[in-house]
Fold:
Amino acid sequence: MKLLILLALASISWAQNFQISLVNENMIGIVGGLRSMSAIISLPPCDLTRETVQVTVVNSTGQGPPQPSFTMPACRNRRDLINLVSTFGGIFHTLNLGYQVEMLEPSTLYNVSYRAGSRASNVLQFTTMSRE
Structure:
């Protein structure tokens, strides 16, 4: 009986939600500059490596641009789907950023969330800047 209770508690703790956030978010949660039509979202935790991650994006009308699912990459120091590579003094440096949500409209409030297996992220809310 005790073993069943321990297994049930372990499965409940495994199914906990996880947190996502905007990468390089400013203090008020506005996505802007060159990325006003897209946003970069942090990735799920490492224990979801090789899981298919579904990305949901909705705006105030309950609809949003469809986003492709992705397979959670293996974890490294910082893991990614978007990365920047620069060369300085013949040495390559890779900066890993996150998942890029695309096809966003300016001046629009969005809610973004992930689902991977039986686990789900928080709902991340942000507003894109106007084109002006």
Notes: The chain has a mean pLDDT of 74. Helices lie at 2-14. The longest strand covers residues 91-101. The beta strands are 30-31, 39-41, 52-59, 70-71, 82-88, 91-101, 109-116, 119-120, 124-128.
